[in-house]
Structure formats: structure tokens, C-alpha cells
Write a structure and sequence with these properties.
alpha/beta; 4-stranded mixed sheet; 4 strands; about 45% helix; globular
Length: about 150
């Protein structure tokens, strides 16, 4: 039998960039909790473009800032890991895709949380399964299909 602590989410949010206009910790908690099966210890770090680019270059070999990076450490008995989100990239993408900023942050948080739990999108089947899971979670949170515009393009 699982104890109550096994369903607990310990979430730390680090604002390592200008905090103005960024989602509150409570928003990240709600979005992360919706995507988490069981319990977890997760840090979400919001970074400027320079830090985002350095991390993406050092850990993925890609020399540009990206929207979200996932660093999983453990999946059992608790999900443990870090998400790094770059607000500059998130804001640019939301504007380019004509999406509400909060919806894009929610999507990227859910996307990252799924990565921390072992989900991936390395092939078409994995990508479809992960996107379907994201759609389900985001719909339950009241957000539209994040792939809606892309699916019709």
C-alpha cells in the first residue's frame, strides 16, 4: 500500500531571470501536478536566454536557447528531476503560434513533466502517444489542443 507521501509533489520554482509577467509558483504546481502520476520532487528553473543556450549546448549539443529542457534523475519510487524553461523562447513561440502565453507555459510544463516520467517522442508512435497524453492533461486543465494549429498546417 502506498503512503500519502508517495503522492506528494515537492515543487521548487527558481526565477533566475526577470520575473515580470511570468506564471506564479501556484500555476506551475497546478500544471505539474496534473501531469504527475504518484509523487515527485521537481525543480522548475526559469532562465534567461544565455543560460538556456549554455545548458542546451552543454547537455544536448545544440547551441541555441530552447523552450524547455528536462533533466530526469529518478522515476521510482518518486519522480525526481529538473525542468529548465526559457521565458524569452516561450514568449516568442506563443506570439509566433498565436497562443495565449499561459497556455504555452502550461503545455511546456506538462511536456517536461512527462519527459521526467520517461515519456519521449523519438519516433512517430512515441510522439503521437505523448501528444495525445498532453492533449488529455491540458484539456482537463481547461486549455486548448496545443497541436491544433500545427496539425492543420
Amino acid at each position: 500500500m502506498k503512503n500519502a507521501a508517495s503522492n506528494r509533489l515537492d515543487l521548487s520554482v527558481q526565477y533566475a531571470c526577470n520575473r515580470e509577467g511570468l506564471p506564479l509558483r501556484a500555476d506551475f504546481v497546478r500544471w505539474a501536478r496534473a501531469a504527475l502520476i504518484g509523487g515527485g520532487q521537481v525543480t522548475i528553473r526559469l532562465v534567461d536566454a544565455d543560460e538556456g543556450q549554455a545548458l542546451n549546448r552543454d547537455y544536448r549539443g545544440k547551441d541555441y536557447a530552447t523552450n524547455v529542457l528536462s533533466f530526469p534523475y529518478e522515476t521510482e519510487p518518486l519522480v525526481m528531476g529538473d525542468l529548465v524553461i526559457c521565458p524569452t523562447v516561450v514568449a516568442r513561440e506563443a506570439a509566433e503560434q498565436n497562443k495565449p502565453l499561459a497556455a504555452h507555459y502550461a503545455h511546456l510544463t506538462v511536456h517536461g513533466m512527462l519527459h521526467l516520467q520517461g515519456w519521449d517522442h523519438e519516433d512517430d508512435v512515441e510522439a503521437r502517444d505523448m501528444e495525445d497524453e498532453e492533449r488529455t492533461i491540458l484539456a482537463a486543465l481547461g486549455f486548448p489542443d496545443p497541436y491544433g494549429d500545427e496539425a492543420t498546417a
